[in-house]
Amino acid sequence: MKPKPTALLVTVVLLVSALSAFSHHSFSAEYDANKPVTVTGVVKKVEWQNPHIWFYVEVKDENGKLTTWGFSGGPPGMLSRRGITRDVLKVGDVIKVEGFRAKDGSNNGSGGNVTFADGRKVFAGSAEDVVPR
Amino acid sequence: MRKPRKPRKLILFAIVALIPVVTRGQSIPRTADGRPNFTGVWAGPGFTHRVGPGDTDTPRVTTYDPARMSPFKPGGEAFMTRPATSDSVKDDPTAGCLPNGLTRQILSPYAQQWIQTPTQIVILYEYMHFFRVIPTDGRPHAKDVELSWMGDSVGKWEGDTLAIDTVGLKEWMMDATHDSKPDQLRIHSDQIHVSERLRFIDPTTVSYQVTIDDPKVFTAPWSQDFQMKLHPTWKIFEFVCEENNRCMFGKCTESDVQKSGR
Predict the structure, then answer these.
(1) Which A residues, 50 through 79, put their C-beta within 8 Å of a C-beta on chain B?
(2) Which DSSP symbol is given to B218?
(3) Is the CB of residue B153 less than 8 Å from the CB of residue B164?
(4) Predicted ipTM?
(5) DSSP conformation class of B212
(6) Which pLDDT tens digit goes with each residue over B127-142?
(7) What number of other Cβ atoms are within 10 A of residue B75's Cβ?
(8) What does the domain layout of chain B look like in residue ranges?
């Protein structure tokens, strides 16, 4: 069944609100809410730094070409106050990331929702547990 | 015939009725001089205040409610509500690590530490390391206040209520409303006058009323009520905005792993 446009709109609005909720600045200053992105790959590096954590995922496309995507999450302090600590993402983890692309068109984005291979979900970006569905 | 009330029930009723009176007067933290003691690390209005396991709390963007605002003066709405320009430098200077300003800082979803002495309150905001040193000895504002992002604040005690008065703020962002309305932002003028009134409502919760009087924008002052929650296990963290601001103003830089992976 196709989702109703209204439901989609509500989801997007909630998501954008939630993504911005963790931010040190406005979401729209850097990311494009009209360009969602979903990738699955291997974590290559985690930068647990201000003003936002960044994590990098190496993704192989159907032709075998490797691309390393960078995703921004919440600030370290905010994440820790929600009980999310720096060891939540490790190099070598296989994860699916759902987020929104950077406005400059580079292979970077805001990573609002992270799902591990075993199905566990970590809301690296969202402050209010509203995530892409 | 109705049975007379048992004294035991009356005593129990009296105890229950007195509990709020006793807790209101005695259980809030107090300093040696008897003032309510705001010393501690707080989650300000920018949190849900739903305290979870491990003293966790959930940050959220909080903005001023248009329904609370007074009517605009002629031209006031156009002054305050600006269309977004798609230039992040203008639309959200914090994307380049510039200050958020007092009215937005009050609602910041980061922790803040309060240090109280008999003559002043010091507030250390985690977000961008801003601070306020607020005398509470009843002195007025200085006459030669320079405009700044955090303004000039003076405080005084009105019984158990701490009243803080701030002037001298630059024309700047009022709050982070551009996230819920990406096509616009809200600006206050340099004539804004901010009043904060804080009062404990239980030992870890403070009622936090903010009154905004911006005569260039509104016909009258208006107020909005928030809360702060004390988190005994928290400390404020270092927050250096420039440390790894990789997509500053919307232009991302490549990381080493992205360069080596090409």
Answers:
(1) 50-52, 54, 56, 58, 66-68, 70, 72, 75-78
(2) B
(3) yes
(4) 0.74
(5) E
(6) 999 999 999 999 999 9
(7) 10
(8) 29-241
